[in-house]
Structures are given as structure tokens and as C-alpha cells.
Amino acid sequence: MGNYVGKPVKRREDARFLKGAGTYTDDIKLRKMTQSAFVRSPYAHAKILNIDTSEAKKAEGVVAVFTAQDGCGEFGVPCGWQVDFKNGETMREPKHPLLAKDKIRHVGEAVAIVIAESLELARDAAELVSVDYEELPAVTDPKKAMDKDAPLVHDDWKDNAAFDWCIGNDRAEVEAALEKAHHVTEMEFRNQRLAPNAMEPRSYIADYDVNGDKWTLYTSTQNPHLIRLLMCAFALGIPEQKVRVVSKDVGGGFGSKVYHYTEECLVTWASKEIGRPVKWTSDRSEAFLTDAQGRDHVVKSKMGFDKDGKIVAHLTDEYCAMGAYLSTFAPAIPTYLHGTLFQGVYTTPLIHLNVTAPFTHTVPVDAYRGAGRPEATYLLERIVSKGAREMGIDPTEIRFKNFIPPFDGVEQEGYQTQVALQYDSGNYEGVLKKGLEMLGYEDFRKEQSEARKNGKLIGVGFSTYIEGCGIAPSAVVGALGARAGLYEVGQVRVQPTGKVSVFTGSHSHGQGHETVFAQFVADKLGIPMDDIEIEHGDTDQVAFGMGTYGSRSLSVGGSAIMKSIDKILEKGAKIAAHKLEAAEEDLDYAEGKWTVKGTDKSVSFGDVSLTAYVPHDYPEGLEPGLDFSSFYDPANFTYPFGTHIAVVEVDADTGRVMLNRFIAVDDVGNIMNPMIVDGQIHGGVAQGVGQALLEEVVYDEGGQMITGSYMDYAMPRADDLPMIETANTVTPCPHNPLGVKGAGEAGTIGSTPAVVNAVVDALAHLGVTDIQMPLKPQTVWKAMQN
Amino acid sequence: MKISIRINGKKHTDEVEPRISLTHYLRETLDMTGTHIGCDTSACGACTVTLNGDAVKSCTLLAVQADGAEVTTIEGMAKNGEMHPIQQAFKEKHGLQCGFCTPGMVMVAADILKHTPNPSEEDIRHGLKGNFCRCTGYHNIIKSIQHAAELINK
Predict the structure, then answer these.
(1) Does A25 contact chain B (CB < 8 Å)?
(2) A1 pLDDT exceeds 60?
(3) Under CATH, which architecture does the B85-153 domain have?
């Protein structure tokens, strides 16, 4: 396309981060700013009998102490997606209060906020708030939450279900096909709960301006416009035009910063109450207790095969935890972002998934990197490999047998799945072939059998995944229960000097938009990257936006910008034609200038820009200015896919798993910046490997989180991972102007089952058929002993 | 208590509460916000600075314990507007994404390279054990530190 696209252009945002000059929310200090601390419940389920704030209110430096009795009790944060019961009953949607009033529903739920002159004084005073609780029995496991005698999370309903849901073919038809199948493979497992753990803890500063009756909220969010909308219109009932939400540098999100949290809503309310700015920054313990978490599915699945190993039917039942309240997008995760991927990359003719989504006495569950697709991929890729082993078929052969044949979505139509979606384009055998070459599969199998003779346990695992990014179009997701559109906004403002400001509703919290977006804008306009500035994360600057999650920035946000550039060039051509005294259709645009075809007569982008703003000699009837905004609502999701291959060694004495190689062949459509795509894959793989080997949020029977610190929750460290071998194939997306699909979550989605399949492969000759994640040494060792 | 610390070559003398951490002193008293707090328990390393030349986690060091010491923070790495070779290498090898762990990573990289001028991949992984990154999978951080070694040893 030009000078920048497709090249590993170094990131423009790096200099400030490398010098310690980034501006994360907690780095901001405002005049007269107060600090706050929350009083949080130590119980998972309890009645609040009494809250005594009198001592705290008298403490040094305390500005205010608020409980639910103090005016904020009426407010709650909303859920943004509605999934009704199969029988038509409306989704059960409890109020999610800013502060608990009568009842506690998870450990860490806030009962009071203490606002003081400094953080130390706020925390000191919070210690003086005395709360009397009556502890009640709790339930944290999603399956047990549906037991008849399970403690109720919300007393308004007769059981804990928030909703139930199903997708795919008729259940009876799928069951009948399984009855007749040559072989049926069964699995039961827990896709364990994970803590997203962005390195920057959540942080908010609300600043109410008494004179202007306006608020500014500085927030570490992935989604500033949606936060403003939800908070103003659905939580606090304050006029949206009076609120500015600013979210500039954000230290990672992974989904956990998409949602509208009670704390940001409460500090906004409190700022007006006290007439001063209020800051709250989470500490890591609070992050474990209050950031929305991921996964937590209890799964029971059957897959039927014919005698040749072709999949004939797939039936799954799941219990998927919602936590104590419905977080912003929670109901969409185990349903429309999960069940719709049950086709995988295979031609399975009959599929049925049934989901029961109960409340549990835990922090809410919502999207965490991959959001529903890692859970779908884990199940599919594990059960296909398990089925292959049971039938004596090579795990790669069973995949080649079942792959959907290649289709580009242009010459060949998109692939209609049994679970609602139509895939855009794919070449699933292509990525596996490339992965096998990189691995040297035949040599590995020889090495493995030699190693076994010496008591050395090595194994290889495969995962051939597909995922869906850039969830859309709005009309479809609306019909499925979304309470928001899923388009994006891109504004391109050409300045009089021909320099360009781009305003995007996408949000960067590590993805490098300032670089990548400038790359394609520069190429499309034929001007230097240095002439382009990318602005994001400020509702006063950017017209509107739906933020960044679901790997949507480039495919949706980038497309919106492309649409605006088209408008710029169309109007620019009119001005150029006037200046060149030629017809528009006789002009070509390339390398930053309009040229009359077949001549050397041309006018530059800069000249046209200046003319647009100084319209003295100007086309009649044309408006001055060169500034366009566009909303882009995609026609479909995009569907990246790939093959991930893990090679492991298991220590025979201790059960410790060593990940020796990791190969990731990903097809994310056209690639704007290969350096950044690789970086996204590396990080995604690390999180997927983290789930396979290390990470798990554990609640005990009473609902206490016993993994609430970095000493207890094992996140991958540098010596837990190998160098990651990456490669790509390129199957462009046929329905967006950049041909891109999305790379943000692919690494996490593809990697987890590859690692677990590899460990099972290493131990299969010992009779091991399955191991529950995370594959801690003791878990693996126990599996080996059985 | 009164403390006096030389930070990035400049002497700072302040009255501080004995309970505040060095991170807090840097961020809140001196407004040097390049040093980050990711966990407050020495586990994540986002707060890493060097104290008398050695990497320390400033979140679990009291400001008063640093009295009289020489401290270097991320803000002190670039000289005369030019980035330190470690910073240059992180940019060159895409060793950062969200940037939050980055100051700690750069500071610990300085410590690794001080003790091991030509580190192996294993040396670097070992040296990074106390610092979490959730974005990069460490892959490009390791490449960055290897590249920094080349730049420094050139």
C-alpha cells in the first residue's frame, strides 16, 4: 500500500513510557484533590446489621465518610447485555449498588468510602469504621450454585440462575446422532477462574466543577465513551454533556477495564457532594477482590465420530459463573462470544450447547482476554485430540480430516456454521501445515519414542483455533441482547497546513494505535507519518466511541478512519480539480498529490488543505474545511485463526512441566505492523500458557478468596516461558477496507489447549487421558500415579 | 523525620512520615511518577529503582531507609535528552506495550547488565524473575536486554 504498512515501524508512544513520562491516572494530581479508601466486607455472604462511621468521621484529615445510607444508596451500575431465559423469562438483573446496604454478596464488596486529605489518613480512618455482619453460608462454584439447597445470592428469585441459554441444532437430533456414532468421546472439567491482572491497578479521579456544574472523570478504562454513557444515563442520572471522561495512558486492560465499576461511579458522585476532586486507586489486593474476572465454566461434553474419525455431533452442557452481580458485558461472554464458536474449524454437522449462568458469591465474571472464545477453543481442541487418541488416529490427521476447506469469502462464499455465525475467510489446513514444518513433526515423534526408552517424558500438543473479533453488526448484536451499538467512530481533521489529526473511538492500553493507525493513514494519504497525530481517550476530543476490546480496534476503528479518509480525498479532489482546471475524473491521487492523468500538472495535499481553509479561489457551492467524521458498523465479525503447537517435557519425579517450545502460526488477515502483531501474540500466548500451567483463582467453601495476592496467584514469570516461535499466513478479511482481522486475543485463545494436549501426549503411555488445569506439579504428579 | 537522598544526581531533603515508602516519597512528595506501584508487596517489580547501584523494590523500602543513599529512577536514565542504551534497545526490540512495568524493567535490566555484561537468555530470565509483565510474554524484553548489552559493549 505504501511506505509504512506492513513494516515493523517502531512505536511512537515508547519514548514517554521509557522515560517514565507516561500519564497514567494515578500519576495525575489536581488542586485540592482528596484521596479515598474503601471499607470492604471480609465475608462472602452476610447481612449488614450496623455500620458505625462516627469514629472515622472524627479522625484526622477526614473530609467525608459515606455509606449506602448517605444518598448514594439509590444508585447502581447497569448491565449492558440482556440474555433472557430459554422459556422467555426476562434475565434476572439485580441492582449492583455502589455500596452494599443490607447484604454482602462477595468478599471485598464495599460498604463505605472514606475520603481524606491523604491516602494514609483515608486508610487509617477506614480502619475505624465498624461494621456488624451476620455471616451467611456462601456458594462459589457455578454448578453447586444450581443445587436445590444452595444459598441464594439474591433473595428476589427462587434459584441462583441469572439466565439459561442454548445454541445450535435441536438437542434431540444431536443426542440421536451421538447414539448412532461409531465412537463417542466424553470430557468433564472446570475451565478455571482467572484474574486478568493488568499491571496498572484501576484508578479514578473525579473532579466536580461547582461553577460550571460539570464533571471530569479521569479513569483507567478501555472504554471512555461507554463509561460516560452508562454512568450518566443509567447510573447517576446526570447530563451526559456535562461530563468529560479522560483515559489517556492505561497500563493494560485485558478486558478488566472495559466495564463500568462501582468505584468510578461513586467517586464521581462523591466529588459533587464534597465539592473537591476525589481520587481512588486500587491496590493489588483490592484488584484481586474487585476487578471482574474471567472463565469459570464447569463443562460436560460429548463428541461423536464416525469410523473414519469425522466428527458427527457435539453436545455440551455448561455452568458459567456470573459472580455476585451482572458486570457490564457478562451475559454475552458464555453465550454469544462462546457458543457461537462451537463450530471451531471443523465441519461438524450437528452441535448443541446449553448454558446455565448462575450468580455466585464471588466477584463478577466478565470478558478476560479472549472472552468466551478461549473456553470454546479449550473444549474443542482438547476433545478432538482426546477423541483422536481414543480412536488411534494422529491428532494432526483428525484435524485435516475435519477441517472446513479453504475459502476466501470473495470467490467462495463465507462458511455458514451451525451456531449462527458465518465465517468470513479461512485456510485452516494452511496454518497447520506451516506449523508442522516449523515443528519438524516426524523427527519429533522419533525423538519422543527414543526419549521414552530413557524414561524421559516429552510430548507435543496441537490447537487449531478460530475466533471472532470486532463483534458486529449493531443490528444483529442488538437482536441478541446488546444494549449498545458495536460500531466505531473515526474523525480525520486535516489542518490548514496539511497536517492531520485523527480522533479515534478506539482506545490504546498497550496496543500501539498511535503508531499503527498513523501507518495506514500516512500511506492512504501519501504523507509522512510525522504529519499525523492520533488522539484517543478523551470524550471532549473524540466525538464518540465504543472503545477497545474483542480485538476490534483495527478492523472496526481503523475502518472508520479509512471511511473518513475516503471523504477527505473525495472533497479534496473537488478542490484539486478546481485548482488544476480539470475534471475530477481526470485526476489521480498518489504520493500526496492530485495529478491530471497523462500530464505533469499536479497539486499537493498541503495546497489543497490550505485552500480548503482559505477558500478564496474555490469551487462554487462547496463548504470550506477538510474535516470528516465517520461511523463504521461492520457487516460481520472477522475470524482470525491459527495453529498453536506446544512441546513440553514433564519431570518424571516431580510432575513439573517445562514448556520447551511454543510455535504460533496465526492468520490475522492483512498485517499493518508485523512487530506489533508478534508482540500481541507473545503476550497472548503468555496468558494462555499461564492458564494452562499456573493461574487459578480459588475460593474456599466459605467464599474466601485464597489466591488474593501475587504470592498465591501464580502469574507467568520470565523463567516460566520459552521464546515464542511466530509465523503468519495471510487470508485477508473480505469485508473491511484494510482486510484486517485482529490479533489481540489470538495468542490467548489458541495456546491453552496446545499446552495441555502436549502434557497429555507426554504422559499418554502411562495411561493419562486428561488433567485438570492449571497443570501444577502436584496435579500432574498425581495424574501420573493413577 | 528528616531525610536527605540524592536522586538522579540531585540532592533532596524533606521531612517525611516514617511509615511512607520510597515509592510514595518519589511519587507524592517529589512528583516523580515514573516509578509505578503494581502490587505494593515486592512481587511485581514495577517500582524498581537502584539504590547505591543495586536494584531494589522501592515499594517495600521506607523512605527513611534510603536516607543518605544515592538513588536512580527511570527519570534519571536518559542523559542530556538522549535515551540510555537500555531504553533505546527496548524501543528497538518492542520491549514494552502498555508501559506500566517498563520503568521497573529498564531499572532491573541495568542491574542485570551491571552484574552480567554479556548475559545469556537464561541469565536474563533469572534476572527478570522479580518483575511481572502482563503484555509481552517477556519475549521482547529479553531481546531488548540482549540488544542493550550489544549497544553498551560496542
Answers:
(1) no
(2) no
(3) Orthogonal Bundle (1.10)
